[in-house]
Design a protein that fits this description.
By secondary structure, the protein is mostly helical. It contains seven helices and no strands.
Length: 165
């Protein structure tokens, strides 16, 4: 079971995470949407490892961002993909001891789940269902870069800050 803190500090942290997610997504709009997307805001998907309340922030941030993206299916299923990824990242890493293991395991979920779900939302507006596997691979690559190349260093920085406070 997931026990989330409901303190004002936790809710504020969730709001900040949602705001950062939206700001990054929209500031980098040209690369945040489409068949090949490098959504830098997805680097935040490792945050449930450190802050379980970030599940809410990531979900709300993705929901708001997707209103500017690929249509209603993206709002629904893209947000669902982020929510599911965040929960699985939290659940599968909460008992791991090593940071590298947490990052490697936690990063799998946003990469794989988005690579499976997001192509459907994109291809529904392009009407090119034959492109599913190519689009899936492109989403996989973008997610991999966001999560492991940008997100992993961010995780280490935030983990150091968390340990000091």
């Amino acid at each position: 079971m997931i026990k989330l803190k409901t303190s004002s500090k936790s809710l504020a942290r969730s709001g900040i995470i949602a705001g950062i997610y939206v700001a990054l997504t929209l500031a980098l709009y040209p690369i945040s949407f489409g068949a090949f997307q490098l959504r830098v805001s997805e680097s935040l998907t490792l945050l449930p490892i450190l802050f379980p309340e970030s599940i809410l922030g990531l979900t709300v941030g993705c929901l708001i961002s997707n209103f500017f993206g690929n249509g209603l299916l993206d709002v629904i299923f893209g947000t669902l993909a982020t929510f599911l990824s965040a929960i699985l990242t939290y659940l599968f890493t909460k008992n791991l001891k090593k940071d590298l293991a947490k990052i490697l395991v936690g990063g799998i979920f946003p990469i794989i789940i988005n690579a499976i779900i997001i192509p459907f939302t994109i291809l529904s507006i392009t009407e090119q269902p034959a492109m599913y596997f190519i689009t899936s691979f492109q989403i996989f690559v973008g997610q991999f870069l966001s999560v492991y190349i940008v997100g992993a260093p961010l995780y280490y920085i935030l983990n150091k800050i968390k340990k000091r406070s």
